[in-house]
Design a protein that fits this description.
membrane, transmembrane, MetI-like fold, 74% helix, MetI-like_sf, single chain, transport, Multiple sugar transport system permease protein, mainly alpha
Length: 317
């Protein structure tokens, strides 16, 4: 009798376990239809991204393997352009300045942004207005900012050199001396970048429950202990993301350097992206110039991967 009942249920689509038993076949059909729908929805965006990014990337990679110009591809030379670039002293000088510029830009802007985010978290008079004013270096176009800084430091009669001379530091030529020019460019990068770090840190701090700090105060934790053992671990994910983004911004930053110093004096502030630009558009050596850009990309991918793994470790910890 039970067998007959089971067969009847099977014939009518009802499982032996009862009317509430799931129909896996129907669910599989729904999943397959949903997957097809998702693919159809995503396909136009993927195709568009491939057309916009893949073709220029493939074309540039092909250019880096040829000895040509902006007009003609030239003959195939394989990896000779990469070998040529890696043996140039100018490349390693630019790589050294890019490293310094990136380290100062990332960690300098992060430290200032973190300090200001913590300050704005407290109740200070006019905090909202103060926060808006702090956003100006990032909001103002880079052309305007670089013009203002040129006016401040470019000539001996500019306000900052004139003030330094009156204070007894002598005549300081901030954009003519190689060391001072490098320092000026790095400080300028921190100036235009710290608002971004401040926003990232402020957004992360907004999700922190204040009761955590109240409990820490009751346990007798100092402000430094609260910062290093509570605040920084909680905002670590946002910190790593901001480091990745700022590293990319610094390595690829062309206008900040070019508008302020043009890569000079001589090549003191010439980063890899400025060197790539000069190699392609001034020396008309397309292959070596594009090879420099691809080497930059490889380094950025490695750095981003390392920092991304730190994010994943923080999530699984």
């Amino acid at each position: 009798m039970a067998t007959t009942t089971g067969l009847r249920r099977a014939a009518t689509g009802v499982g032996v376990a009862g009317p509430g038993a799931p129909l896996h076949h129907g669910k599989n059909k729904q999943l397959s239809r949903g997957a097809i729908t998702m693919v159809l929805l995503v396909a136009p965006s993927v195709v568009l991204l491939l057309l916009i990014n893949a073709y220029p990337l493939i074309y540039a990679a092909n250019q880096s393997l040829h000895k040509g110009s902006l007009i003609i591809t030239g003959k195939f030379v394989g990896f000779a352009n990469y070998t040529d670039v890696l043996t140039r002293p100018a490349f390693w000088q630019a790589a050294r300045f890019t490293l310094i510029f990136t380290l100062v830009g990332v960690f300098g802007s992060w430290l200032i942004g973190l300090a200001l985010a913590l300050l704005l978290r407290t109740r200070i008079p006019g905090g909202t207005v103060f926060k808006v004013l702090l956003m100006l270096p990032w909001v103002v176009p880079i052309v305007v900012s670089s013009t203002a800084w040129n006016w401040l430091v470019a000539t001996p009669s500019s306000p900052v050199p004139a003030l330094a001379e009156r204070l007894g530091f002598g005549q300081l030529l901030f954009l003519a001396d190689p060391t001072l020019a490098a320092i000026t460019v790095c400080v300028f990068k921190v100036w235009v970048s710290f608002p971004f770090m401040m926003l990232m840190t402020s957004a992360a701090l907004a999700s922190v429950d204040t009761t955590v700090y109240e409990a820490a105060n009751m346990d007798g934790a100092t402000k430094w202990q609260q910062l290093t053992q509570i605040t920084l671990p909680i905002v670590s994910r946002s910190t790593y993301i901001s480091w990745i983004l700022m590293t990319i911004f610094c390595v690829n930053d062309f206008p900040t350097i070019f508008l302020l110093t043009g890569g000079g004096p001589v090549t003191a502030t010439s980063s890899l992206v400025v060197l790539a630009y000069r190699t392609v558009f001034q020396d008309f050596q397309t292959g070596p110039g594009v090879a420099i850009a691809f080497l930059m990309t490889i380094v950025l991918v490695i750095i981003s991967t390392v920092l991304y793994r730190q994010i994943r470790k923080g999530e699984t910890a």
